[in-house]
Amino acid sequence: MRRRVLRCRDATVLGIEDDLMVPEAPEGMVVVGDGALMAALTRSRGARMRDIVATIQRHQDEAIRASSRGVTEITGGPGTGKTVVALHRAAYLLYADRRRYESGGILVVGPSAAYTAYIERVLPSLGEDSVTLRSLGDVVGGLTAVRLDPAAVAAIKGSLRIRRVLSRAARDLPPAAPTALRAMVGGIPIRIDPPQLHRIRAEILRHHQHNQGRDAARTALAEAAWRQVHDGEREEFLDRFREHRDVEAFIKAWWPALDPREVLLWLADESRLASYAQGVLDPEQQRLLSASLQTALTTGTWSVADVALIDDLSSRLGIAPPEPEEERGFYEIEELDNVGRYGVSEVEVSGTSAQVAPTFQITPQDARERLLQGTIGERGEYAHVLVDEAQDLSPMQWRMLGRRGRTASWTVVGDAAQSSWDDAAEAATARDEAFGAKARQRFHMDTNYRNAREIFDTAAELIRTVMPDADIPNAVRETGVYPVRRTVPSEALVAAVITATRELLEEVDGSVAVIAPDVHRASLAEVTGLDDRVVLIDPMSTKGLEYDATVIVDPAAITAESAGGARVTYVALTRAAHRMTVLEVAP
Ligand SMILES: Nc1ncnc2c1ncn2[C@@H]1O[C@H](COP(=O)(O)OP(=O)(O)OP(=O)(O)O)[C@@H](O)[C@H]1O
């Protein structure tokens, strides 16, 4: 009913704190103050999140130890301990039902690689290292993406409409595929023309995923050929057709195993994309989408939003059965003569020379190899899926997680006021679909343990103007030190950032983050040279993180360039524990 924490140095007891585990102290029980909590909150923040075992509060403990069934939703404003509570819950589930959760697995998903790096010590510090920790960019085994798309592109890729585009792509012929079959089988000319091939293809795709359909395709072609011939022994003809070298070559080219990443890259081609996106995306959206995949092809990197699309395509295409050893490689198709027979020349796929070259110098071929290196692993399912910063998931990302938690229980943590996803209703529908009919229990956190009250007041003032019903927590810690606000002309911005950062380095022992919008970040690179406690970071990547002090650069520009608008600025304004300087740019 009461957890008593003794803080000691050697044999000397420095302090005693009690955490009450029941709503009211039973008569006669003495409960010793909350000084330990305040001491913990006042401490300097390190580069990694710490566990809070020593000072867990009662309402937090309730959420941590809630029933493992169904969906547990934990909401609360910034700094209310949602993340630490969720991580302690993962540890608790493993403790309470180790057999189920260790064998079934717990997947913890956070918004970014910076976030996973920040929290990765918490679970091991609680004695758990059997949890799979992933950022949204590496949920799909074999892929790692950290690049963020511009807001307009992320909106296109995240919305469920994109599924129609992907579905058309997944059913289309690969770019190099032959469009007609010509072969001499047993001295008889066989000819299957484009419309018939098209019908055969459509019919097979009604019953099979592409990558599982090749045998059916071979059989259907043989039947179509037999209908042309209708002479001699049927089985003998079918066998001869199926084993025919030219037919086999044709099938490999017409029905190759498709890698979902390859199919996504087809969208870089504007005319292909136009045919898939007709009636779904307007011309400007098509241009943005194909340009974004061209960016992948020039940088050799996927964006975080691409990963959910690759996962969607992967579930449409299915996993290809492994090719026999000698079939590895890819095939170049060339028309050998006017009669139109297809010949095949095999080209060795060179080894993985993909770990090369910095992105800015990469050749198109290297970029392509990087994008396609390794194989996409089979999708694992988990016994529990824990999602932090859930308000940011796009509908497509909810589907991606839903595929991994069909029979799982869930813990879902978020705060709508910090959302960077614009269409909350569409995301809510996709989330409900991922959860299915599972029962839900809700916990609400209302105390902000991170921000000094003076800092949080500044943030709360902003969010109230754009979102009057925002979930505003109560910041418990007062310091008497108010955030500094300065307005500077744009040409003086860099100098002002350097000055502010220097001041904060003097005032705090730990980390100082300069949170700057895209428009200013390149010009601010030198601040990281001031001290290795300084990080320069974009607002979106600060989700879930915290620092001793922050410099918020040009909040108006942060609002202007994010899909979440002022909600993203609110995230930036709630990252500092102890000190904050806000630098506005004079109009
Ligand atoms: N009971 C506690 N004892 C000590 N520290 C705590 C306690 N609860 C929360 N904290 C601290 O408060 C800070 C904020 O917690 P956390 O990051 O989990 O909040 P959050 O609700 O996930 O925030 P956000 O939504 O802004 O990302 C962390 O430094 C965390 O360690």
Could you please describe the fold and organization of this structure?
The chain contains 24 helices and 19 strands. With 587 residues, the chain is α/β, with parallel strands linked by helices. The chain folds into 3 domains: 69-139 and 379-447, 3-Layer(aba) Sandwich (Rossmann fold); 151-346, no CATH class; 451-585, Rossmann fold (3-Layer(aba) Sandwich). Helix content is 41%, strand content 18%. The longest helix is centred in the middle third of the chain and has 17 residues, at 283-299. The protein is elongated, with a radius of gyration of 29 Å. The model is unreliable at 325-359 (pLDDT under 50). Bound molecules: adenosine-5'-triphosphate (ATP). The site of adenosine-5'-triphosphate (ATP) has 24 residues, from helix 1 and helix 3.
